Amino acid sequence: MAASSPPRWLLILLAGCARAPDLTGASFACADDSECTAGYACRRGVCRVAFPTIDDAGPGPGLRIEPAAARIEVGTCSPPLFVRLVDAMGAPLPAREPVRITLSSDLAGATYFPGTDCQVPPTSTLDVAQGQTEVEFRARSTVRGSATLGATAPRLAPASATLTFDPRPTSISLRLGGTGGAVWAGDCVPLTLESLADGVSTAVWSDLPLQLGSAPDAGVDYFDDLSCTTRVDAVTLASQSANRTFAVKPLHGGNNLLTASGALGPASLSLVATPLLRTGWCTMPAAFDSAVLCNFTPALKNRDRALVLTETTGPGGVHPADYEVHCRLISNTTLSCTRNSTAADVSVHFTVAELPGGTAQRAFGNCASIDPLSPAVDPQLSFVLKATATRAVGNFGDDDTSYAVLTSPSTVELRSANTNLCLNTSTLVVSWPGLSVERGVLDAGVLAAGQTTARVTGLPDAGPNVTLLVQPATRFEGLPLCNIGVRSWADSPSSFVLERQGDAGCLSRPVDLIAWERIDWGDRARARHYSAALDAGALSAVVGIEPVDPTRSFVVGSTMLAQGASAGSTDSSAFNETGVLHAWFVIDGGTGVSVQRGSSAAAATFDFFVVELHP
Question: Taking the model in full, what pTM does it have?
């Protein structure tokens, strides 16, 4: 007769405060583990199997992979990885018996190894020994990609981690962003540096310092920020980053080769920028009230920020008024040049320079009335360029030598030394943040009869990048033109010199008034003073200069007399020809300035400034 099974009550009695193995669902109250039989533990006031299980009443014991996210180099054995046993609160939980963990991964080519290296065969299972809380393992992949690694074990909450397998970057690249089309010199352009592996964006494994450069040298400025306020010459691609965005501002018109160099080798990018300057020539036809359109390329980005310089000269025997030409921008590609006088062909050399962030506005009128400025400007950041137009056929006198003065944020006043009959004067008020402008009017015979030089002192100190603009005027009519050919340059940070030259006839009259402006360009431009002396019979000379970038450099004479800032001094009263002491200034290859005049009837000296813009 077969033995019968023990009665249910006996099994319960033999198990003590525990759940018998075959009594599923039976449990007994307890206060601590000592009240439970071997293999069981007191959990939430009830004797349960001591091996961690998921608590039906809420979160329970489970697995955790650490780190939960890791980046591993393709083809190498990873740093230590762990699967840990944790309780419901995330604290380490020792295993009461061995626990087998099964691994799963969704990236083909990724394998996993028990222990501390990748020398043993790969596995899909790991074992946590009794009494331990974790097991260590390693990972390796032959391909790049992201793997979701899963870990499961019976009666435990599963865990997962994200492992990213990347190769080491082998190169870097540069790319522009956000240009919206063409780039002008002076634009602030986003620039991104990126690390690559096999042409794919890949983060670097440690900080990567990179030196920035350009060709031509100093053709661009780099900035740490996208608003172009903090200049830098190097950047660092941070560890675990694949790209770094900063900014570049092209200064050189035409092609700029941007470069970055570091441990991953060089990168380069061509950036073509429209230049700041346009230059050209126009010929005024021999007729009263003549006009000509002067076209140029490339087009301006914004003509409301364009400084316009013009210089007129011509052959001997031409009346002074023939050189008085007004030029103004009527479009982004066209200057309209006009004059009121007579019968000679004369040539106009023009320069149009865009000033990013600046303004340039024309005011036209006479001593009785002139257009108001709108918008208003800050006088400390602004200077005035002047051109006149009369029908005078003889010597310059009190009604021809007017001067323009910025007297308020919205007012330019035109004045003459005596009669206040000045006519048809065009002014251009140029304003640019970063400038510092001092101005004044010297009267009471600043240069007396026979006096050749004067000096203005006591000014606030200026930096090395200074330009002087002077406008001489006289109270006398029928004056030999050479009397008021006054040049200027700074001889110290707080002073400047006024000088004229000539024979007794040239010095027979005083220079009654001189309006002056001293422009300190600060960091916005490099300005240097030069002088050219032309003997009688010489129409031109080339003056060597510090090398400049011709795509952003122009020349301005120190004296505004009959035509723009293009006048000098002459030494003979026998000739009253504007062509003797007015010149064209043309930058010659970036290393010289060609000074050319229309008449060589007498010797002349020209003081001028070469200004290389730094927008």
Answer: 0.82
In the chain, what percentage of residues exceed pLDDT 70? 89
Q: What is the mean pLDDT of residues 471-492?
A: 86
Q: 266, 261, 206: which is closest to 238 by C-alpha?
A: 206
Q: Which amino acid is at 22?
A: D
**Residue 84's pLDDT is what?**
97
* SS3 assignment, position 379: helix
According to DSSP, residue 582 is labeled B
Mean pLDDT of 53-72: 77
Rounded to 5°, angle at Cα 359 from 301 and 217: 60
Dist. CA 194–CA 213, nearest whole Å: 16
Cis peptide leading into residue 615 (ω within 30°): no
Query: What pLDDT band is residue 42 in, cutting at 50, 70 and 90?
Result: confident
Residues 6+ apart with CB under 8 A from 204: 169, 195, 237, 238, 239, 240, 241, 242, 264
Widest Cα–Cα separation across the chain: 156
Out of 168-172, 359-363, 513-517, 563-567, least confident range: 563-567
Amino acid at 596: Q
| Beta carbons of 349 and 584 less than 8 angstroms apart | yes
Q: Which pLDDT tens digit goes with each residue over 171-186?
A: 999 999 876 678 999 9
What average pLDDT does this structure show over 114-129? 96
* DSSP code, position 92: B
Q: How far is CA 310 from CA 28, 223, 391, 565, 614, in A?
A: 105, 35, 19, 8, 21
The total of other beta-carbon atoms located within 10 Å of residue 52's CB is 27
> Which residue's entry shows tokens 């349960």?
48
CA nearest neighbour of 510 among 477, 554, 557, 475: 475
Look at residue 47 in the predicted model and tell me its pLDDT.
76
Long-range contacts of 399-403, Cβ-Cβ distance < 8 Å, separation of 24 or more: 399/423, 399/477, 400/320, 400/321, 400/562, 401/471, 401/472, 401/473, 401/474, 401/484, 401/561, 402/367, 402/473, 403/441, 403/471, 403/472, 403/473, 403/513, 403/514, 403/515
Number of C-beta neighbours around residue 71 at 10 A: 16
Over 50: is that where the pLDDT of 23 sits? no
Q: What b/e string do you get for 335-363 counting C-beta neighbours within 10 Å, with b at 16 or more? A: bebbbbbbebebbbbbbbbbbbebbbbbb
